[in-house]
Amino acid sequence: MENKWIVGVDIGGTTSKMAFITPKGDIVSKWQIPTDHRNHGGNIPEQLKYEIEKKCSELGAENTCLMGIGVGAPGSVNAVTGIVREATNLSWKSAYPLKKNLEATTGLPVAIDNDANCAALGEMWKGSGQGARNLVLVTLGTGIGSGIVINGHIVHGAGGAAGEIGHLASNTKDGYLCKCGKHGCLETIASATGIVRAALAIANDHSDGGLSFFYKQNGTITAKNVFDFAERGDHQAKSVVDYALEHLGIALANVANTLNPEKIVIGGGVSKAGQYLLTRLNHYYQQHLFPTVKETTEIKLASLGNDAGVLGAAWIADQLT
Ligand SMILES: [Zn+2]
């Protein structure tokens, strides 16, 4: 086979995403599989091998057309040793040698990195980064993660924990307990979890207003509901959104003033709130920027959705060759 492909894998707690990708970043085929938790996650290399061979056969391609595998994994990932730690959503025990085991199982070269880092590289390569060599991807989901790319390379930090933007200190006086053990981290305020908690507090305290009424009707509120109500002018929802986005805007301005990247790209489930989120976030973000940074660091919404992780994973695997 003349064409050579890279396998991009984005391992998640429930589903893993896979794709065959050309060295130019075109997706040949992509699919999802339920992540195999049996044998404390020890089946994952065999599962990936099976899936890769099955897809090759479906496409009428030889396994020899594959150049390597790139994997984005949750938790603390040492890109050099290929060991994953603290992947709390997976069944791997304290430290799992993913690179070594996957290379032994498949016979292909393997590159791994943290999933948020891979998503940042994916957006840099084929998404909203549009080739920017300096970029920060911030994912707003149940938590807040980020990947920092400087001069085209991920910043890992001394312990692999660079980019923990979700744990920037935001409310140091009376903030909520974060899952990291500190109080008042940014993600206790501006993640979907933080937004829903603030919305529930208001809905429980008030008998009037759209948000309160919706909660009484449905017994639940999502971050998307809160943004929808805010966009329609509901005062309670607006106060929740503005509180979250003021803290996020200040944090991102601090990041921008520190790194002056070309772009800060906002991804993750909460980013589906789209232009409304971007406008309100920019309102707070712009107020805290150093003048030169204001002219050169722009906030954009991510554009690749679920494909960012597999594309970034393929990008790191391509660097092996
Ligand atoms: Zn924290």
TrEMBL record:
Record-linked Pfam families: ROK
Gene Ontology CC: cytoplasm
Alphabetic keyword roster: ATP-binding, Kinase, Nucleotide-binding, Transferase
SUPFAM superfamilies reported for this sequence: Actin-like ATPase domain
GO annotation (BP), single: glycolytic process
Keyword match Transferase: yes
Highest taxon listed in the record's lineage: Bacteria
EC number: 2.7.1.2
Entry's Gene Ontology molecular function annotations: ATP binding; glucokinase activity
TM ranges: none
Gene3D superfamilies per record: 3.30.420.40
The keyword ATP-binding is assigned to this record: yes
Family of this protein: Belongs to the ROK (NagC/XylR) family.
Name of the protein described by the UniProt record: Glucokinase
